[in-house]
Amino acid sequence: MPPSDTPEKAPSPGVEGQPLIVFDDVVKRFGKLTVLDHLNFSVAPGERVTLIGPSGSGKTTILRLLMTLEKVTEGVIWVADEPFSHMRRGQGLTPASESYLRARRKSIGMVFQQFNLFPNMSVRKNVIEAPVHVLGTPKDEANARAEELLELVGLGDKIDAHPTQLSGGQQQRVAIARALAMKPEILLLDEVTSALDPELVAGVLDVLREVAETTDITMLCVTHEMSFARDVSHRVLMFDQGQIAEEGEPEQIFGDPKEERTKSFLRSVLDNGF
Amino acid sequence: MDFLIQRLPLYLDGAWVTIQLTIGGCALAFVLAMVFGIMGTIRHWLPRAIATVYVEVFRGIAALVLIFWMVYALPQLTGYQLADTFAAIVALGLNVGAYGAEVVRASINAVPRAQVEATVALNLSWSQRMRLVVLPQAWAQMLPTFGNLVIELMKASAVVFLVGIVDLTAVAQNMREATGETLIAFIGSFILYYLIAQVFIFGMRLLERRANRKLGRAVPGGGGLLALLKPEPVVTKSGVAK
After folding, report:
1. CB A177 within 8 A of CB A127
2. Going from the N-terminus, what domains does chain B have, and what CATH number goes with each?
């Protein structure tokens, strides 16, 4: 039954510690196609989770739901003990309004496969516009922070360049700086190296390793870069057909997968030279 | 030739009226196009419905009928008589604005969805998204068609001589009636219409070039001002179409 019809009773979010993100029986359908099938999982604060699995298994949809780019068909997403896909009304929940989503998603940032930098702005403007206009950061402060972040991603000298003057890898690093400028608690990485030429992948992954090591940002990462997943993530979720086929620490998933589906997926990925 | 040179001041007066009508009409059309074009992209049905009504009504009425209506019918209805030139500007603006609104709407819708998703990820509000990201990108898309509309509006302004406004067409018509020199009388207005059009086209290309530069699309052939006399090359997402 879709939640839009009847407000359901608000359940209490997950139990183990205080999870930051909880997917509670989430279903996502596009027309007749079920992309996420009664999905349950949670992510702890500061945890870095990698989502792997064949294409079409629903990994990217999870990130898009968290970024509010899609709406759940059934079930509820919780963030920081409060409903996220829905909002409280009386005793129950009702699908979140645009203004509620706007208030809630400010703690979440996303880096896209195709970078999606704004071509009408310089690198600097790409990084400072949202902090200045959305967070109300004073311009001087936003500029200083932009310089700092671009230094972090190794592009301090490109601050006044135009996005089209940068390589794909550089554009993606600007996109990472842009997302970090909003000081997200949760960072969603959607196949951030898939659109890059092979020689540019390492630079982007190095930046993300550094972000992982030096911050406590919670990260959800969809990637085909298995060595990166092994290095930075605390936990790996293997998806197949909209459900979690297997989950565990990276050592276990990559070293000693239990499920046949995981084994064959890893074989196919590794065969392709990833 | 002497004929034209002697009467040049009259022609220039007419040309000035045509220029005023064009600039005034374009200014109004631009505002209407932006307002109704943006309304046409809003998800809520009400602004969209209002935009559709405006576009369909004013796109469907001939500019001449609209001018007649503004000059002759409106005073009977309201008791107010607008200055003729002002009435003509309003009529031209309403008419061309309806075309422009469709251009604005289509250009906004042509901004890649990924750009909008990036603004959601940065939590921009609707108005911030429009102002900072969508409109600046749609702008480059609108300009070539806007250039056409400016010229269309200038040419459509010729009908104002039918309500007694002495524009460039009216000057030629009066001249022809007074002297019987049909051929030469109209050559004068041909030339001036052409020159005015070239000035507007030049201005629009300047804007177009600036807009493309802002989006980081290099203008091939580089080019001083003379390059502006050539039309802008078709710029596609992946680069310049050869």
Report:
1. yes
2. 2-235 (1.10.3720.10)
Taking the Cβ of residue A173 and every Cβ of chain B, the question of whether any pair is shorter than 8 Å is answered with no
Range of the domain at A90: 21-271
pTM of the model: 0.86
Please report, for the domain that includes residue A200, its CATH number: 3.40.50.300
**Chain B neighbors of A109, CB-CB under 8 A:** 121-122
**Would you say residue A93 lies in a domain?**
yes
Name the pLDDT band for B229 (thresholds 50, 70, 90).
low
Q: ipTM of this model?
A: 0.89
Name every chain B residue with its beta carbon within 8 A of the beta carbon of A164: 215-217
User: Per-residue pLDDT tens for A213-241?
Assistant: 999 999 999 998 999 999 999 999 999 99
